[in-house]
Every structure is written in C-alpha cells, then in structure tokens.
C-alpha cells in the first residue's frame, strides 16, 4: 500500500507561510496529500499558514487533452534524461514536474508506477494504446532489448516530430480551400437572409417588372429565409453521417482517399505526404533492427491514406515472396521513379535506412514548398470567389434602381 501511495500522481498545492527567518513567503509544492505537503514544507523550515489544492479553470492548458506533440516532447525529454545518466524512474519524476497538462502528468506517473513495480517500459506503454501505438511500443521494446533505450527514444522523438510537422502542413493545405467555401457561404447566407429582404420591400413599390437576375436572387432569398434552419440540420446530419461512414467503412475511406489524390494541387501534396510518411516510418523501423516485412506493416499504417496503405501491403507481399523492395515498390505504380531509384541504390549499398531517410526529407520539403505556393495562390482565389458572390448579389439588388428611368 505504501508503494502505491508513493507512486500516485502528486497534486499541486499553493501555500502561504513564514520562512526560517520569519519573513512572509508563498509558493507551490507537489505532494500526494495535504498532510504530506505540510510535512514537506516543515522539513524545508517553512511554517505554513494556508495550504490549498491548486485549482484550474476549465479553459486552462492544465485541462487540455494529450496531443501527439505532447508525446513527442515527452519522448525527447526522456531521451535527454537517459543520455545524461539520469535513471529511468527519476527521469519520469523530472519530466512530470515540468508538465502542465494533468492528463499527461497522470500518464507519466502511471508509467513510473508500472516500471517501479517491475514491468518493463514497453509493457507499461501497453496500458496507454491511445497515446502510444504499436510502432512506438515495438521501437521502445527493441531499444530495451538492445540496451540502447536512450538512442531509440531520441529516434522515436525525431520521427514523431517530423510526422506531426508533416500532418500540420497537410491540414494547412486543406484548411485554405475549406475556409474559402465556408466564408463564401456564410457571407452569401447573411446577405440573402438579412439584406435582400430590405431591398425586396423597396422593389414592391416600383410598379415595374424586375430583371430576371434580381428575381432569381429574391427567390433564393425567400428559400433561404424559409428553410435556413432545415438547411443547418441537413448540413449537420450530412457531416455526422460522413464522419461515421469514414470511421466505419474502409471502402468509403478508400473512395475518399482515391478521389482526394486526383484533386488538382491538393492531390499532389497528398501523394508527396504519403510517400514521405512511408519512407520516414520505414527508415526509422528498419534502422531500429525491425525486419523489413514487419517494418512495412508499420509503414502501411502510418501512410495516412488507404490507397497507399493497400499499395504498401502489396509491397510487403512481394518482399515476402523474395522480390527486392525496389521492384515491389515499382510494381504498385504509385511511387515516382526518383523514390524507387533511391531505394534501389540503398538496397545495393546496404544503407537502405539512410536512403529512405533522404527520400522522406526530399518529399517533406516538396510538401512544404507546395503548401507555401498554395497559400500564395489561394489568396487571390478567395478574393475572386467572395467578389463574385458578394458582387453578384449587390448587382442583382441595384439592377432595378439602374432601370428606374424606364418607369418614370
């Protein structure tokens, strides 16, 4: 029981009191309980007057969920601790004390408790599959078995940092077109529901036939006013159905991924991203001593696209039957000649992991450049789309005013 209490994730307490010289002092301290916090303060020569559990607002970073970048930072810090000669258990304590997120802190102390109880690090990670996937656990297991855990953690940290950076670039590339559509729809909806009806009341007093374009916009306005609530429900329901279908149906995901790869500009970014993720994962796992066939399993799961996942599994089957990696990759028809040639050179030279690392770096840079170019191209596109939508509505409203001379 005592061991369990010691390994429990500590709570932060804020305190006020007097130091050894009798001067007023305050601060914060980590302890498993209020009584333990007071005992620690007394050992430090502080006479506590008020000791209270630290509270956090619901919007503070303390309560935010754990993200992949948090795991990458934890891995990097643990690698640094071990390289500096700090024991694993002490490393958990040092890293946890610098973490703000309560969930991340709890994960670290859970890991410490399991390792302290005799479980190896890789086995302890299995209790947190949401944050530490099979690839992460397998690499840690390989590092522990080879006695080079600090080197493996450093390699995992680099891998996760690069993959997350790549994901962020892809999200950035996809956000711009979506933002254009959303802004255009919102502006148009506001004009149709709030502005056009004001003009319609003025038009009714003209006593003349309205232009066809104006009638069309007025008709759209009437539909928008009568059905806007239904439209929101339909859009929300469609979004929910889409997300569920994407989550549950592999064939639907494959159709979406295949269609995405055919999109202009965006499609090429997604192609390059999947190639980079494949090469980065394969380089990391193969360099860690994982057999090539098993490494391809990890690379397939990390590709981020069902089309590429299927192709990599095809590569795995080819390699399993004795094909070279270069031939198996080439037969999928998805990988560009440069990537297959660099893989061939790596196989011949016996430096496949180094060559795959170069392939990953090259295509990551390609994605980076394409996203920057997309940002430059999308700005005038935003202006053009908004100009057409807003300008079209404005022209439709002012056409009758321009034709007032026909009535007079």
What is the total number of structural domains? 3
Assign a percent range to the helix content.
over 70%
Strand order of the largest sheet: 2-1-3
Overall CATH class of the largest domain: Mainly Alpha
Q: Please, how many helices?
A: 16
- How many beta-strand runs? 3
Distance between the termini: 96 Å
* Beta-strand fraction estimate: 5-15%
Q: How would a textbook summarize the main sheet?
A: 3 strands, antiparallel
CATH topology of the largest domain: Receptor-associated Protein
State the order of secondary-structure elements, H for helix, E for strand.
HEEHEHHHHHHHHHHHHHH
Keywords: Cell inner membrane, Cell membrane, Coiled coil, Membrane, Transmembrane, Transmembrane helix, Transport
Pfam families: T2SSF (PF00482)
Organism: Amphritea balenae
Protein name: Type II secretion system F family protein
Overall description:
Residues 74-197, 278-400 form the Type II secretion system protein GspF domain. Residues 1-34 are annotated as: Disordered. It is a multi-pass membrane protein. This protein has 408 residues and is mainly α. It has 3 domains: 11-53; 68-162, Receptor-associated Protein (Up-down Bundle), CATH 1.20.81.30; 175-407, Up-down Bundle (Receptor-associated Protein). Helix content is 73%, strand content 6%. The protein has 16 helices and 3 strands. The chain has helices at 2-7, 34-43, 68-83, 88-97, 102-116, 121-125, 134-146, 149-203, 212-248, 250-261, 266-287, 292-302, 306-320, 325-332, 337-349, 352-402, and strands at residues 11-18, 24-31, 47-53. The protein has a 3-stranded antiparallel β-sheet. The longest helix is centred in the middle third of the chain and has 55 residues, at 149-203. The radius of gyration is 30 Å and the shape is flat. The protein starts with a helix and ends in a 6-residue tail after the last helix. Residues 1-7 and 57-61 have low confidence and may be disordered.
